[in-house]
Amino acid sequence: MVVLKQIEEFIASEPIAMIGVSRNKKKFGFTAFRELKEKGMNIIPVNPYAEEIHGSKVYHDLKSLPPGVRGLIIITPKAVTATVVKEAKEAGYKQIWIQQNSDSQEALDELKGTDINYIAGQCILMHYKPHSFHKFHGRLKKIFGKFPK
């Protein structure tokens, strides 16, 4: 189970790259990136098929990221997530957030027993300067004992 200290450590690991940012403004992969950027997160988009998204230069893969990136938010289809996790491990990343609904058992198994601080089953928007719906959702999780402590 994820604890609040893990989440705080992850958020403090900026700059953070988001793997799987969508070019489609109607998809969560675009909305999440835009919202985090607008809230002030130092976030870098990764998408193999784009050059620029929401005014930011896009990197095509983990290997092309600039030095200094410390954390990764993975917001890919489940079928791709384990591959991204393996690449992140090989590259030495120690802060990984697998956005809820992007996790797979294979990806989680890759992370178990490592020294990587990983978060899964949580929504980054509920934990990074939440407002409106995400703040309300966080309150509901607290009421029902599902919010990390």
What do these coordinates show?
The chain is an alpha/beta fold and 149 residues long. The protein has a five-stranded parallel sheet with strand order 2-1-5-6-7, sandwiched between helices. A two-stranded antiparallel sheet has the order 3-4. Strand 3 and strand 4 form a beta hairpin. It has one domain: NAD(P)-binding Rossmann-like Domain (Rossmann fold), CATH 3.40.50. Helix content is 38%, strand content 18%.
Rg calc? 14 Å
Per DSSP, the total helix count is 6
Global mean pLDDT: 91
Q: What is the domain total for the residues? A: 1
The CATH architecture name reads 3-Layer(aba) Sandwich
- The CATH H-level superfamily is NAD(P)-binding Rossmann-like Domain
Structural class: alpha/beta
Strand order of the largest sheet: 2-1-5-6-7
Q: Are there runs of 5+ residues with pLDDT below 50, and where?
A: none
User: Strand content of the residues, in percent?
Assistant: 15-25%
Order of SSEs, N→C?
HEHEEEEHEHEHH
E-strand count: 7
Distance between the termini: 10 Å
Largest sheet: 5 strands, parallel
Q: What overall form do the CA principal axes indicate?
A: globular
Q: How is this fold's topology laid out?
A:
Blueprint: H1 4-11, E1 16-19, H2 28-38, E2 43-46, E3 52-53, E4 56-57, E5 71-74, H3 78-91, E6 95-99, H4 105-111, E7 117-122, H5 124-127, H6 132-143
